[in-house]
């Protein structure tokens, strides 16, 4: 018998301001760290020079075309859309005395459009961008001074949008500061561990302060964290591999542990000692961290392995997350290993650990789509990927896990965060634009558009069982 997802389950997609909006200096917007990464998070930040091409300056022009895009999301039956606010539209420099009214007004219109289509927003406060001014003048999150600036930004948007937005997230993939310090925290790539963990600490305190502000200002709202669910399996059943896996998983679990429990886990004491660092944690910080999240959200794209054998673990050096490839799994064109069962595993694992509702806020397949003779993308590979992952979410729900919803990554083609390619497409909706900025920006539903619509309509009943 096929499984029907609970009526309360939210269905939708996820986008981020810097990957869709474009209009990077329109209506008083300031430059963000994302605006100086024309090659994406994997490339080096650059000084902007007039005339230099940056695909994100236009992206997919969501800034102007959102009514058309939201209408298409509604046609698929979305009940939620995860999106982010560009901090630099509200506080162009981050340390401004007053918010930018034009930026606030833009999101008023956008949120009203969602409301008109019956789509509930899930709003991320900071998705991989901070005001560039803060990175340059304050060393990004290395500075404690940024905490009150972020809190002021959060309070400003809670006051303005609280009547419309009941689901919030603080920092996107907060654990990525471990791997991409500029993208995550406005820090230089070669940052020392002392500075990196101090910056992470400041982000965690700022996140908790936003949670507190949200609880005070919008009592009927829920606010969650957002972590990259980079789960690792032991490469073999050798006890040393198992222990190494525990230790490596704790590196990213630390973030959720603090945000969900309200204090540093004891295993970090040894970790800090081994790194030879000491984090400044004030009494006020400890108090702030006690304000915990209402739900846990995460992105899920792949799993990998951990090994205590240096010859094998060396193979991991090539990828950002330092994962040893799993010999049992296939990979996407970008080498991301595809593991639907891993999603069921992770949902169970996180629910056992936190006993909080979970939200899968990113998942999807980046692929090079080709238009057929009729100009349509027949993306059966994407349908397969999403079917298999959604089926495993259904399994996890039947395991007893409380899953609030699912927002697939990039329901409309957008600019890749890691490589700034538009040719790495995730969408149900094709956008006519290439990596060099050529194209009309026209939108066209792909085959997967109609497939996702049917899955939402059937409340998951049309999913095909898979391993
Ligand atoms: C997540 C990010 O890491 O993965 C998104 O939160 C990102 O911003 C997504 O786009 C997919 O990664 P990429 O590099 O393919 O865009």
What is the approximate shape?
globular
CATH architecture term: Alpha-Beta Barrel
Strand content: 5-15%
Query: Can you list the strand order of the major beta sheet?
Result: 1-2-3-4-5-7-9-10
Q: Number of DSSP helices? A: 15
SS-derived structural category: alpha/beta
Q: Which hetero compounds are present in the coordinates?
A: 6-O-phosphono-beta-D-glucopyranose
Can you put this structure into words, describing what you see?
This protein has 15 helices and 12 strands. It is globular, with a radius of gyration of 21 Å. The chain has a single domain (10-457), classed as TIM Barrel (Alpha-Beta Barrel), CATH 3.20.20. Helix 8 packs across helix 11. The model has no long low-confidence stretch (mean pLDDT 97). The protein is of the alpha/beta class. The protein has helices at residues 17-20, 62-76, 87-90, 101-116, 132-138, 146-161, 181-185, 193-217, 239-261, 267-275, 283-289, 310-313, 340-354, 380-398, 447-457; strands spanning 10-14, 80-84, 120-126, 167-171, 222-228, 232-234, 295-299, 304-306, 358-362, 403-409, 429-431, 443-445. An 8-stranded parallel β-barrel has the order 1-2-3-4-5-7-9-10, surrounded by 5 helices. The chain has a two-stranded parallel sheet with strand order 6-8. The structure holds 6-O-phosphono-beta-D-glucopyranose. Residues 16, 19, 128, 172-173, 228, 299, 362, 366, 409, 416-419, 424 line the site of 6-O-phosphono-beta-D-glucopyranose.
């Amino acid at each position: 018998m096929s499984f029907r997802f609970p009526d309360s389950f939210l269905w939708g997609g996820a986008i981020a301001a810097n990957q869709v909006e474009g209009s990077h200096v329109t209506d008083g917007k300031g430059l963000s760290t994302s605006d100086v990464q024309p090659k994406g998070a994997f490339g080096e930040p650059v000084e902007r020079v007039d005339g230099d091409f940056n695909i994100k300056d236009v992206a997919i022009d969501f800034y102007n075309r959102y009514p058309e895009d939201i209408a298409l999301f509604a046609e698929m039956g979305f009940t939620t859309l995860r999106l982010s606010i560009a901090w630099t539209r509200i506080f162009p420099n981050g340390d401004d005395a007053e918010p930018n009214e034009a930026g606030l007004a833009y999101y008023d219109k956008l949120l009203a459009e969602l409301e008109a289509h019956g789509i509930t927003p899930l709003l991320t406060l900071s998705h991989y961008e901070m005001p560039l001014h803060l990175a340059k003048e304050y060393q990004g999150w290395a500075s404690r001074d940024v905490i009150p600036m972020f809190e002021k930004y959060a309070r400003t948007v809670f006051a303005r949008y609280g009547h419309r937005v009941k689901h919030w997230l603080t920092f996107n993939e907060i654990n990525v500061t471990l791997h991409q310090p500029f993208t995550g925290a406005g820090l230089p790539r070669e940052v020392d561990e002392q500075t990196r963990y101090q910056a992470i600490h400041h982000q965690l305190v700022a996140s908790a302060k936003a949670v507190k502000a949200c609880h005070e200002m919008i009592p009927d709202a829920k606010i969650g964290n957002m972590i990259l669910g980079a789960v690792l399996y032991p490469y073999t059943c050798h006890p040393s591999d198992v222990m190494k896996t525990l230790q490596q998983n704790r590196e990213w679990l630390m973030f959720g542990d603090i945000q969900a429990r309200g204090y540093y886990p004891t295993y970090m004491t040894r970790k800090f000692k081994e790194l030879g660092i000491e984090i400044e944690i004030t009494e006020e910080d400890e108090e702030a961290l006690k304000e915990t999240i209402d739900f846990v959200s995460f992105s899920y794209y792949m799993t990998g392995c951990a090994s205590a054998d240096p010859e094998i673990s060396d193979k991991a050096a090539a990828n950002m997350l330092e994962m040893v490839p799993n010999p049992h799994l296939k990979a996407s064109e970008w080498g991301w290993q595809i593991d639907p069962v891993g999603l069921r595993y992770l949902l169970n694992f996180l629910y056992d650990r936190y006993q909080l509702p979970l939200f899968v806020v990113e998942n999807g397949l980046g692929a090079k789509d080709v238009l057929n003779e009729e100009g349509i993308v027949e993306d059966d590979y994407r349908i397969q990927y999403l079917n298999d992952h959604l089926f495993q979410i259904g399994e996890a729900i039947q395991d007893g896990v409380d899953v609030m919803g699912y927002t697939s990554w990039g329901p409309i083609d957008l600019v890749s965060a890691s490589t700034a390619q538009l040719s790495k497409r995730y969408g149900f909706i094709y956008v006519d634009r290439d990596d060099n900025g050529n194209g009309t920006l026209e939108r066209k539903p792909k085959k997967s558009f109609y497939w996702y619509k049917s899955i939402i309509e059937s409340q998951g009943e049309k999913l095909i069982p898979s391993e």
